[in-house]
Amino acid sequence: MPLSNRAICAILFQEETPGKFVCSSCSRTYRSAQGFTNLINHLRRFHPSNEEEAETALRETNALRLHIVD
Fold first, then answer.
1. Residue 39's domain spans which residues?
2. Domains in the chain: how many in total?
């Protein structure tokens, strides 16, 4: 099952203010008041591999690759 646009955008964008998001890769700012279509279109156009990488990271058991010390 593919990830939702919301989940992908939560990883690859930072919410600057309500409805305004900044791309983590290129720092471009986009408005997205109700949905995530603008953000997903940006990823597909400028960062085509990032969407796949976000899906892979969320599916891994240790998505943040944390090293735990005993």
1. 5-59
2. 1
